Amino acid sequence: IEFWGSNAFEPMVIVNPDGTLSGVYAEFLEKINSRLGTRIRLRIEAAPILLRQVKKGEIDGILSIHPDLADQLGLLKSSGYFNAYPTVFASSNTQFSSPSDFAGKKVAIVKEIFFSKHIVQNYAAEAEILHVKTAQEGLQKIQSGEADFFVGLSANSYLISKYRLTGIEPKYTFFGYTTRFGMGIRSDWPELVSIMDKVIASFPPNEVNELVEKWVQIPLPRGTVELSPGEKAWLKQDHTIRVRLGDQAPYAYLKGGKPLGISVDFLDVISKRTGIKFQYVTSSPPFFADLQGLIQHTGPDLLPSLTPSTEREKVILFTDTYVSSPKFIFTRDDAPFVASMESLSGKTVAVVKDYLVHKELSENFPDINLLILDNNKSALGAVSSGKAFAFIGGILSTPAMINGFGFQNLKASAPSSLSDAAVAMGVRNDWPELHSILNKGLDSIPEAEKTAIINKWSTAHFEYGVNPADVMRRITAVAAVALGIIVFIVIWNRSLAGRVRERTADLVNVNATLEKEITERRQAEEKLIYQALLVENASDAVVSVDMDYRIRSWNAAAEKIYGWDVEEAVGQEFRTLTDIKYLGVERDGVLETVSGVGSWRGDIRQTRQDGNFIYVQASVSLVKGDDGDPIGLLGVCRDITEAKEIEEKLREYQGRLRHLSSQLTIAEEKERSRLAADLHDHVGQSLTFSRLQLARVRKDLPDDKVAAAIEEVSQSLLATIQDTRDLIFDLSSPLLKEVGLEAAINDWIEEQVSKKHGIDTELLVDKPLKLLEDDLKAILFRNVRELLTNVIKHAQADRVVVSIKTSEGDLKIAVDDDGIGFDPSRLSNPGPSEAGFGLFSIQERMGDFGGSLEITSGAGKGCRATLTVPMKTLSS
């Protein structure tokens, strides 16, 4: 067994001048070999070469790998044993306090290192990225002035002293990206994963850390939360903290069985820094019931995204606010123009029971009719279906919910005058310790990290230090001024139109036409804005290209799926940028296909920015200009990589099962042959010899009565001998191995089909067969025997013909009967008791040898079953 590792990060692996290996991983592998009594070797290669070998399936395993990368490469994962701490290095006089300091700088990373790529993608989008081969080269780039920062591991501090890289020091550790690395093992060795899990579990908790600290100091986490004795005592009571998950994207919701959202990410960070554990309640009752459960301490214990109010603060403990956004009025896209809350007078507004919007509207806007519902989905659905005119919600959360619920006819119409949606965490009031711990956890998160979490889930991104609510207020103010100007212009135009109306009716008509055009233009612009929001918030990649395949638009989902941001992608040739491989149609034929029928749909393989392959399901439509001529293509692409990988594994498993079935059949036939030989050589011979002895005794006896009794015993032995011969024949034809396949088939149809069942039989052989392998002979004989057994049981036939011939490079064995026939389509889904299941088994066994079974039949038309084996199989 060989485990591979990268030479990019000393002292995890150190290649000594004499070619021997030392360092953390080398010593760890020595300990594993000592515990297991094995001789597993460690082989070192550069990261790009290592990844290529993995993709080719040419390695046994990787000693240390990020778990997400192991998943992408299709490797099995062991338990984690080593914590990796991504760290930023810089010269001593360079400041680095947060990831925002990457902007405009040169950042070196080791090429093809998984965590480094993710950090620069998420935090260094505005930096110039330099790729190096090793951590040593990255640090030397800083010393030479070619790079401002190097993103590596905290363990790379070892290189600073070893290579005397004076003036360089670690500046910042990404504890949010700390990952417990384990081993990646080839997918067909699950047993080795189990062995490695057990040996990793045998290490005492501090033994691996002590091994790491031998070479480098483990960094202390920044933002570690200092808990009071009372808080620590409360944590030791091991409370189960039940957290409500509702339908409130992007704060806290469930997707694919997994808790997601801004609040969930904040709770994950707090959990890591405080040790507190959360249990997410995924099948939650309506919000108002959960709110009462929190107040009455019956569960849940925590509402992760709750807006504080004076009334609520009397019975609920609220953490500090961690995100805020203005509330907007949302209507159908065909609704009349809405300028403010006053536009809702006399209208029906859908609200969620006991939300603050429900309270504010019922107390302050008595002219608005309220439709009270249990959850956001029902409320937004009421607006979408026309049961309600509007819904009021946060501009941060409501578009995400609209997209998630699939309501495509809703839009943000205007800002409301209600209080901002300030989001905090609501805690049951008899757990002040939990309230205090949560606040400390929130305080420990740097503002840049908070902003990154919010931007991850929000379609509107904000810079560090900018309050989203302040931004939206400014936008609202600008919009109000613009609206005032528009209103003034409209009033002035109408006044002018009144004066002109007195002089000429023609100008009135012109003015009316202009007003209509303005209205239509405004509605068209609103529709375009809404459509742009839908595209930007879509979960699938939406990409438009011109007739030269150059990208014209690229939404957020495309950035996520392919790895290139919009600035990098626009203007590039799409099929070249992503290295498209069409599955089922040549890529240059897509445009021709779309031009002919208007659309194309299919699966394609593409390349992400990081070089990894992905599979997407693409739907491509032709876009035409006003003159009807094609101007480009619009593609919607959905990532189906995981489904494709599962499909490939299923195909692999099916092949292995088919092969196993054939091997079991071969083993069974060999065992049948052995038993038949034993019965023939021992039991059969003994019975025959006993009968000969009885005949001799009977001949010498003078007593006729005794002789008659012996004759009766002799006849009984004769019947037993015949039964034994039948049993031997049922088990295996002795002629199969001694004479050949044709003789065995001929003997079987005469004895078992013709003599036993009275069916007329005939064997036709065009020429003697070449020597066949014993395994293939056994499978073919077994299959022919099963086909003939089916004829006996089901066909009600009077005649059966078995023909063996060589045609067009194939060996064909056909079984024809003149029976009642059947519908072959029944074979596609046979029941457990149907003969079709046996035919399915025959087809699987033939497939393992590269052959096939073909059935031709019909009601009252008899049946032909043809077994085909390629001649190359016979000669192999």
What does the main sheet amount to?
6 strands, mixed
Label the overall shape: extended
Structural class: alpha+beta
Beta strand %:
15-25%
Arithmetic mean pLDDT: 79
Taking pLDDT < 50 over at least 5 consecutive residues as the criterion, the unreliable ranges are 460-475, 477-493
Strand elements, count:
38
Helical run tally: 29
> Helix proportion of residues, in percent?
40-55%
Radius of gyration, taken over Cα atoms and rounded to an integer in Å: 39 Å
CA-CA gap between termini: 31 Å
Blueprint of the fold:
Blueprint: E1 2-6, E2 14-15, E3 21-22, H1 24-36, E4 41-45, H2 47-55, E5 61-65, H3 67-72, E6 76-77, E7 82-84, E8 86-91, E9 106-110, H4 114-123, E10 128-132, H5 135-144, E11 149-153, H6 157-162, E12 168-173, E13 179-185, H7 190-201, H8 207-215, H9 229-236, E14 241-244, E15 247-248, E16 252-255, E17 258-260, H10 262-274, E18 278-281, H11 287-296, E19 302-306, E20 316-318, E21 323-325, E22 327-332, E23 348-352, H12 356-364, E24 369-373, H13 376-385, E25 390-394, H14 398-405, E26 410-415, E27 421-428, H15 432-443, H16 447-457, H17 468-501, H18 505-537, E28 541-546, E29 551-554, H19 556-562, H20 566-569, H21 574-577, E30 581-583, H22 588-597, E31 599-607, E32 613-624, E33 630-639, H23 641-700, H24 704-731, H25 734-738, H26 741-757, E34 760-765, H27 774-795, E35 799-807, E36 810-817, H28 836-848, E37 852-857, E38 863-870, H29 871-875
Parallel strand pairs: 1-4, 1-5, 9-10, 9-11, 14-18, 23-24, 23-25, 34-35
Antiparallel strand pairs: 2-3, 5-13, 6-13, 7-13, 8-11, 8-12, 15-16, 16-17, 19-27, 20-27, 21-27, 22-25, 22-26, 28-29, 28-33, 30-31, 31-32, 32-33, 35-36, 36-38, 37-38
